[in-house]
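Please study the protein below:
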Amino acid sequence: MKLNRVIWGIVLVFIGIVLLLENFNIIEFYWRNVWSFWPVVLIISGVNILFNKNKSQVGNIICLGVLVIMLGFVFYKGQQPPASKHWIGDTLSKDLDVELNDNDEGDVQRVSFSEPFIAADSLKKTVFNISGGGTSFKLDGETDSLVVADVERRNGNFILQKESSDSVTTINFKMKDKKGRWSFNEGGNDVDIKLNKKPEWILNMNMGAGEVDFDFTEYKVRSFKFDGGAAALDITIGDLLPITDVIVKTGVADVKIKVPENSGCRIKTKTGLSAKDFPGFVKIDNSNYETPNYKTSTKKVFINLDGGLSNFEVGRY
């Protein structure tokens, strides 16, 4: 057996054990601590080149020994509370074009953004693009306007823009700092979003770390697309449209999706090392799952999940 395959096998087993221990609340593992140990990959690769040139048994043992010691050290450090409150670290932040704000709670600024609702908007496709990092987003009821965003801002600036054509209304909600650079903050920002119930919505979210809590039960959502890194995503899909598409692509995330019990639902997964929990679904193959009423239901929800080290849960209500 090739040594490289053995090494990667041990690494995958290590990650799986850590995730399992976390799921059972046996340990609390701070994945942000792991990023600072990326040079371990260089060390293991170098040892492999030095000691395994002739594919000797001794060289294999040395390489595997170094790997086990390194992973043991990473396992120990991963359980220590982070010294830096920033995911990318204080040292690295000085070399990057980012701003790490350490504002206290007293520095919170409350601002509100809105776009008026025009009767013609309900006849168009309405696209809502949201982007930002270190932010908590929540859907907080309806509004007579088209969109309202109430922000508790601790860092960065927000912009709400509207663009209209004959067939599409596009709303862009973005977060950047004063110099146009991405801004990260441990405390983060809080955004409460209100949507008008009349349009048919297409929502696209692109964010790094953050939280999303959207209940679309009373809204006509044609599609929801989420592209995020270290995020917590909790969404509830309604049944006001015949078809709803949900596309989620994540790095390290906790994803919870709820779909109506009377709607047929199909899940397609590309989840790598992620955990999956789909109660009430029938497994078609290793990648596809369906509800028992998928073929007979007149309303359907299509879910596409793509993640690395994530936890995916899809339930019915």
